[in-house]
Design goal:
The strands form seven sheets. An eleven-stranded mixed beta sheet has the order 3-9-10-16-13-12-11-24-27-23-22, sandwiched between helices. Helix 3 packs across helix 7. It is built from 15 helices and 27 strands. The chain folds into three domains: 248 residues, Bira Bifunctional Protein, Domain 2 (BirA Bifunctional Protein, domain 2, 2-Layer Sandwich), CATH 3.30.930; 107 residues, Anticodon-binding domain (Rossmann fold, 3-Layer(aba) Sandwich), CATH 3.40.50; 70 residues, Translation Initiation Factor IF3, CATH 3.30.110. The longest helix has 26 residues. It has 493 residues and is α+β, with helices and mostly antiparallel strands.
Length: 493
């Protein structure tokens, strides 16, 4: 393991390769036999499950319920909302036949040409169309509203340039789809879910995010407004970490979903959709991890504490195990996920390196001498600091330490983010600073033409029009035209 750790590319040398190395070496995921797809390995999936569990609780706490909708969508559904089909057409995987048969020459299986579907089916890139076709059957009166549904699912979008977790053809996500009686109610819902995502990112992932609204060019296909949370990775690039969309009545009109309002008038339903995906795994890795491997926030770590015994004989191991058993039981009773690793097929040094690589927040090491002294060696993964602590009250001590680590890695990420938000006041300054990475606050004239020109010339995209920042009008640094306020530009994943 020590040798493998040396093989982990340093961030300063090649950040992109460091990320790829870490995903594989920390046992999070690997490439699959299908181009553009990945296998999420048990340890990686355990982190995703913790994310899923917490988000699911937060959705239910805000009144949402889970449902499931079909994977396959009739092609005609996508053509009903013009912007939506234009946005996703190039990424769609299409099912054209429903049967295979053995080749006559015995060479294997072939598509049966007689089994062509009357209408092609699209593997869902997102589910607005199939869901709103369903909602038409559910909604008749204002008494049927609101509908607050979420589904946990997989989606498929053909991607040519893939990177595990960040951009894959198939990925896991949740997608919320809600229906409302009024525009105001739908807008409140869209903003509320953005706040849920923001709270999750900061409180559980320890990832500071900036909330804002997307430009017209960066909006979700078919939305009237797209709200976003943007996180900054250690290389200064942005990662869109969650979006919430106000869809207006676009999908209701496309699928003729009307309801009788309180005034006994027929009108179209108002809609939202919102989602986060396994891309959050990428955010987690790139925000906190270091040259030694993963650094996981305790709130999402599958193993929060690992206890490793050090012994020279079976008697010593038995004595350590006896002392550790009530500690493990007490930790579990307090909701701390703990692993006692007494496996005899790996040396302690290997275990230390492995758990460090996998980002386990706290490591406890106990040997015969520690038993005599009633002490334990404690190592915290975020700072790699080691110290001795008393075995008496160790559970209480570790519980507090986990919260301290959670707060510390958030503060570290926040300080880094804040120190890399830079105001720029000229295009020359913009082109210089964008090479250094970070979020650039610049005045923009509000046009897609200017936005695309900047992207073409600098590879920087308009990440969002941020909430809670200076809204003083000024002059666009690109065209010299009036600007309503500063917006955030950055290079992105």
């Amino acid at each position: 393991m020590a040798k493998e750790l040396k093989d982990l590319t340093k961030r300063s040398e090649n950040y992109s390769q460091w990320y790829n190395d870490l995903v594989v070496k920390a046992d999070l995921a690997e490439q699959s036999a299908v181009r553009g797809c990945m296998v999420i390995k048990p340890y990686g999936y355990a982190i995703w499950e913790k994310m899923q569990h917490q988000l699911d609780k937060m959705f239910k706490d805000t009144g949402h319920v889970n449902a499931y909708f079909p994977l396959l969508i009739p092609k005609s559904f996508l053509s009903r909302e013009a912007e939506h089909v234009e946005g996703f057409a190039k990424e769609c995987a299409v099912v054209t036949h429903y049967r295979l048969k053995n080749a006559e020459d015995g060479s294997g299986v072939v598509v049966d040409p007689a089994a062509k579907l009357e209408e092609e089916l699209i593997i869902r890139p997102t589910s607005e169309t199939i869901i709103w076709n369903t909602y038409k059957n559910w909604i008749h009166s204002y008494r049927d509203l609101p509908i607050l549904c979420n589904q946990w699912a997989n989606v498929f979008r053909w991607e040519m340039r893939t990177r595990m977790f960040l951009r894959t053809a198939e990925f896991l996500w949740q997608e919320g789809h809600t229906a409302h009686a009024t525009k105001e109610e739908a807008m409140v819902e869209a903003r509320k879910m953005l706040d849920v995502y923001s709270e999750f990112a900061e409180k559980y992932m320890a990832v500071p995010v900036i909330k804002g609204v997307k430009s017209a060019n960066e909006r979700f296909a078919g939305a009237l407004e797209t709200f976003t949370i943007e996180a900054m990775m250690q290389d200064g690039k942005a990662l869109q970490s969650g979006t919430s969309h106000f869809l207006g009545q676009n999908f209701a009109k496309a699928f003729d979903v009307k309801f009788i309002n309180k005034e006994n008038q027929l009108e179209y339903v108002w809609a939202t959709s919102w989602g986060v995906s396994t891309r959050l795994m990428g955010a987690l890795i790139m925000t906190h991890s270091d040259d030694n491997g993963l650094v996981l926030p305790p709130h999402l770590a599958p193993i929060q504490v690992v206890i490793v015994p050090v012994y020279k004989s079976a008697e010593q191991l038995a004595a350590v195990s006896e002392r550790v058993a009530p500690i493990v039981a007490e930790m579990k009773a307090k909701g701390i996920s703990v692993k006692y690793d007494d496996a005899d097929n790996k040396r302690p040094g290997f275990k230390f390196a492995d758990y460090e690589l996998k980002g386990v927040p706290v490591r406890l090491v106990i040997g015969a001498r520690d038993l005599e002294n009633h002490t334990v060696e404690v190592m915290r993964r975020d700072t790699l600091e080691k110290h001795e602590a008393s075995l008496d009250g160790i559970v209480y001590y570790v519980a507090n330490l986990l919260e301290e680590i959670q707060a510390n890695i958030y503060k570290k990420a926040l300080d880094f983010r804040n120190s890399h938000i830079i105001e720029v006041n000229s295009y020359d300054e913009f082109k210089e600073k964008i090479e250094e990475g970070g979020f650039l606050l610049a005045h923009w004239d509000g046009t897609t033409e200017t936005e695309l020109r900047v992207k073409e010339e600098t590879k920087a995209t308009l990440r969002c029009i941020p909430f809670g920042f200076d809204e003083t009008p000024g002059t666009c640094i690109f065209t010299g035209k009036p600007s309503a306020r500063r917006v955030i530009f950055a290079r992105n994943y």
